Amino acid sequence: MPLESFDVVDYVVNKGHGVKGLAAMGLTTVPRNYVQPFEERLEATKDNVSDESIPVVDVSNWDDPAVADSICEASRKYGFFQIINHGIPVEVLDEVQAAAHRFFEMPAAEKVKFKRDPTAPGTAKLGTSFSPSKEKVMEWKDYLSLQYFSEETAAADWPPICKNEALEYFKRAQVIIRRIYDVLLKGLNLKGFDKSKESLLMSWIAVNFNYYPSCPNPELTVGVGRHSDGSALTVLLQDDVGGLFVRAPDGESWIHVPPTRGALVINIGDILQLLSNGRYKSIEHKVVPNLRKTRVSIAIFVNPAAHQVVAPLPELLESTGEKPLYREIVFLDYFKYFFSKGHDGKATIDWAKI
Ligand SMILES: O=C(O)CCC(=O)C(=O)O
Ligand SMILES: [Fe+2]
């Protein structure tokens, strides 16, 4: 079928075939809907790659003060770091990756049952791109967002083809998330992470499977456009394909995050930048798809409770005497604003500035 007479949005978004269905048609060029303005393309990135790297922290001994120092310093400077020797067996990581592949390899007729708008309620939500009804150019990515409310809702509603693996990975990752929060709070000279901080930091959690099919024109499009995460913290498991770029501290160039077997990428989200009154940085990043290979990543977005009010931590402001840089916001409003437009760099957190 000639591409001109084919309704791409209807096929990919409404009918639920996703970019995976589009890529399977054997296109030699990406449809117009996926062509990014020049400044967002790979060419603009490739000419501007930094030789810096984001820190890799060996967390085999969480009680070692050097571990805490490295994590806090990386969170202030890069907003990103990788952790190794975190205790999650590599088999658990491999199995959740395999489960994500199995989900996306199901026939579209099976997957479409899970199709939802990104801000609609649901425990397992299939989507494509980022916010298709709001963005100008589409992104070369499909995703399944598994919302964790409780063990029971996950067991009942997550797709059987990937449920056990996702739950196992998520349960193990929770232990690490608590450790990291503890380190980051203490790094602000505050009391460590405990139950009283859950509603603020670790209440609404989503495990997202991101699926980036091989792409005939990686130089024209993006897998994920420039953004910082709207979460408090994100834990990312990537496979061996590569393509994740993080803005360097110079604010200009890009640092590639090299796939590292067994490692997890941790990044500070907007909410932690806001709570820490700008000490910890939520840094812009983007994904470039691959010409030959499908890439899968699994992101755990760790968020405040939906109705939680977030603002720079009063105990931090009191102890330092500084003024808040961000206003009070209900997290759900922040989340809705994030999805009310295409990916646009740091515009969401800028909206929260005083
Ligand atoms: O796939 C990746 O490496 C990153 C994905 C990402 O940035 C996101 O889902 O927010
Ligand atoms: Fe992200």
UniProtKB/TrEMBL annotation:
Q: Which SUPFAM superfamilies match?
A: Clavaminate synthase-like
Q: Is the keyword Glycosyltransferase assigned to this protein?
A: no
Q: Which Gene3D superfamilies match?
A: B-lactam Antibiotic, Isopenicillin N Synthase, Chain (2.60.120.330)
Biological process (GO) annotations held by this record are: coumarin biosynthetic process
Instruction: Give one Pfam family.
Output: 2OG-FeII_Oxy
Residues annotated as domain Fe2OG dioxygenase: 203-304
Q: What are the names of the required cofactors?
A: L-ascorbate
Q: Which GO terms describe its molecular function?
A: dioxygenase activity; metal ion binding
Iron is among the record's keywords: yes
This protein's UniProt keywords? Dioxygenase, Iron, Metal-binding, Oxidoreductase
Family membership noted in the UniProt record: Belongs to the iron/ascorbate-dependent oxidoreductase family.
- Tell me which PANTHER family the record gives: OXOGLUTARATE/IRON-DEPENDENT DIOXYGENASE (PTHR47991)
Q: Spell out the protein name for this chain.
A: Fe2OG dioxygenase domain-containing protein
Organism this protein belongs to? Nepenthes gracilis
The organism's lineage is: Eukaryota, Viridiplantae, Streptophyta, Embryophyta, Tracheophyta
